[in-house]
Amino acid sequence: MSDAERERALEVLREGAALGRLSHDTFLRRMELALTARRRHELAALTADLEPEKRWSRRLFSTVGAVSGFGVKLRRAWQAEKLPKLLLPAPGTYALRIGRDPANGLRLSHDTVSRVHAELTHQGGLWVLRDLGSTNGTAVNGRRVVGAAVVQAGDQVSFGHMSFCLATR
């Protein structure tokens, strides 16, 4: 067995530890065994689970990740185009209350919308959407609002099962 073979095994172990594929204790134990190994099959056993992916495999997995991420973005954009627009009020005007109650600035007559569901305000140059203890929740871009969330034009907002795309005039 040559020093080059031993060095290659040590490099594979170092890379495996750096990528988080080996715990620190396992790395130290395998390094010790690699330095004392006398036969090639002993080195092969130490690195069998750490062999680097082939170049084409890395490219394939990278491409699949990029394509699947693109699908999510495309689906979101497609849905946003189909959604009715909710125009943000002019900054500094008033807080827009949203719900089923006729006294709200935006009345939504849907069973999943609470009487006083949410409130949209302009604070310090930012739009803030606050859930007012609704039963079926308020969401921004698919994530439920707990308390309040900063929103902007282009965001998808949902009140119960009613969804809108925020827009400016």
From TrEMBL:
The keyword Phosphoprotein applies. Pfam families: DUF1707 (PF08044), FHA (PF00498). InterPro entries: Cell_Proc_Reg/RNA_Proc (IPR050923), DUF1707_SHOCT-like (IPR012551), FHA_dom (IPR000253), SMAD_FHA_dom_sf (IPR008984). This is Peptide-binding protein. SMART domains: FHA. It comes from the Bacteria. Residues 96-145 form the FHA domain. Signal peptide: none annotated. Keywords: Phosphoprotein.
